[in-house]
Amino acid sequence: MKKHVTLVAALQIGFSAMGIIGAVILFFVFSFAGSFVDQGNIEGLVLRFLGTFLPAIITLASLLGLLGGIGLLNYQKWARVLVMILAAIGCLAFPIGTICGVYSLWVLMQDDTAKLFT
After folding, report:
1. Which residues have C-beta within 8 Å of that of residue 10, sequence separation ≥ 6?
2. DSSP string covering 14-38, please?
3. Distance of alpha carbon 64 from alpha carbon 83, whole angstroms
4. Running DSSP on this structure, what letter comes out for residue 110?
5. CB-based burial label for 27 (10 Å; 0-12, 13-18, 19+)
6. How many Å apart are CA 55 and CA 20, to the nearest integer?
7. Predicted TM-score of the model (pTM)
8. Is 12 within 8 Å of 83 (Cβ atoms)?
């Protein structure tokens, strides 16, 4: 099961890194789009809100995933729980998130895996 835990950790770290990169790109896209809209209008306020809120949420979730992935590599008990929660939420991102989430949950819920984290 150690190989499976390492693979789950690598998936978690990889997708988290892509999430952070995506959040930065999203921030710049909204900033660029906001330059074409009058900031005093409702459209400008909505773009500014979305351009700040969405990247912040994506970055927070990605940082949690990155932390969880690193913790899994070190067999930390809290990391197993954190990654199980993130994997369950990730199942909503059909189809890739569902596949990775189900695999992560399957690996982390095995009795042999639980013994590694005690």
Report:
1. 69
2. HHHHHHHHHHHHHHHHHHHHHTTS-
3. 9
4. S
5. middle
6. 8
7. 0.89
8. yes
CA dihedral 28, 56, 50, 25 (to 10 degrees): 20
| Amino acid code (one letter) for 115 | K
Alpha-carbon distance 102 to 84, whole Å? Answer: 10
Query: DSSP secondary structure string, 44-99?
Result: HHHHHHHHHHHHHHHHHHHHHHHHHHHHHHTT-HHHHHHHHHHHHHHTTSTTHHHH
pLDDT tens-digit map of 54-103 = 999 999 999 999 999 999 999 999 999 999 999 999 999 999 999 999 99
Cβ–Cβ under 8 Å, residues 91 and 102: yes
Tokens 């351009």 belong to residue = 51
